[in-house]
Structures are given as C-alpha cells and as structure tokens.
C-alpha cells in the first residue's frame, strides 16, 4: 500500500519519470522502480499509463522483491517485465533504483560489433565495453521468444550480466560491477543507489552513445571504410577503431568527481518538466 509517508520520495520519483521521458530515455513502454526505504523487501513501481503521464499515488503500487507480486491481494500485477526490477533488487541489496528503457541510440549498440564505451567525461561510469544481455541464450524449448523479461529466471539471468566476470560467485556483493547493461535488440537496463544519479547516468549514457556514434561516422567518412571496433588501445591514445576513449583511470576519476553533485543538471531537468504542461505531478508541494 502506498501511504502519505512516502509522498516526498514518490514526488521525486514521478519527477524522475518525467525527466527521463523528456530526454528520450523512457518511451511509452519504459519503466523504473524504487526500493522502499522503510522495508527493503518491497519496491515501488508505477503500473498505469506511460512514464510521462504518471501523476499521483494512484499510479504507483508496492511489490515484493522476492517474487514481483503486489503486496496486497487486490493490488495490480503491473508490467510483464517487473521481474527485471525484482531480480536486480534481490541480487544486489545495495541497489535501490532500477531503470529499463529503449532509447534508440542505445539499442543500436546492442546489435553492433562496436561496444559502447566511455568517450566523454560525463559518462566515466560506463568504463570499458558495456555488457550486452542476449536473452536468446536463456530460452527454454517452446518458451515465448518476444525478448521480454517475463519470468524470474530471465530476470535473474539479466541481473547476473551486471557482474559478468564473477561467474555467479558474488551472491553476497551489495553492488554490481556495471551500472548499465544493454539488452540485445531490445533496450537497456540501468541501476544505482540514488534516484537522481540513475537519472544522470541514463541521460549521459545516451549523450555518450550519440557522441561515440558521431565520432565513428566521421572516422568512417574520413577513411572511406567501415570502422571496426577491436579490443585494446592503439598509439596516440586512440583505440584501434580510431576513436579516443577514456582510459580506465580517467573513467574512474571522472565518475568520482561527477557523482559528488548531480544537483545542477537535476535542478535544470526538474524545471524543464515543471513548466511543460504535458507533465503533471500532484505530489509536489
């Protein structure tokens, strides 16, 4: 049950949904969840309309992390892919926010041989090559293959992709190795500890993807041939695909700097949706 005690928190949650739609991160099918700070075994998620149109407590329900079922017998079952959220929150106790969207430019990297990598200082958290979750590896015979994460088993497989080098040995780790995973031919999922930082990560993941794509296109035009991404770094600070990416140290240090204060862009983004009549947030005081 959603109570008045959560009004401030959920007002910020609604604002975050609006910001993500404004920036083209969430379309009509995207969704985001928020762990209940008063009971970590449950999480909030909207269950009606599209992210842009979420406006009140009536649009939000509470679910169990254990099975993604509503906490009340008559509660809404929510979206098919609610298992994305429950399984990541279950797998990583330190994670409080899970975001799933279908931004076009990010989807393009999920079906390309060119890995999404940190190319700008605003997106240092991406680090090296971003993992790609290929759901086809996990389908059972006669299972619906619509690319949706519609079962706890598929949600758990996606959650594991956030720490792909641990071979299932980090069950007691609170946080994943990666903040963002691409989903082949589908979209992406991102997660984090704080709501505002997850919004920041999503917005700048898209910006990074656009900058990287533009640089690859310029390289292609300059050399009149396809740019093929290869592992490792080349001479002069450039990767073998001819693009300069952040070094591991740069990625680490830039994210350490940027994550200290995301209030500046958040304040701008919040104002943008406040003055746009499309977005209504009845919980704002």
From TrEMBL:
UniProt KW Lipid metabolism keyword: no
Pfam families on file: Aldolase_II
Gene3D superfamilies: Class II aldolase/adducin N-terminal domain
GO molecular function: aldehyde-lyase activity; metal ion binding
InterPro entries reported for this sequence: Aldolase_class_II_sugar_metab, Aldolase_II/adducin_N, Aldolase_II/adducin_N_sf
Entry's transmembrane regions: none
Biological processes per GO annotation: pentose catabolic process
Protein name in UniProt: Class II aldolase/adducin N-terminal domain-containing protein
Organism: Canariomyces notabilis
Source species taxonomy: Eukaryota, Fungi, Dikarya, Ascomycota, Pezizomycotina
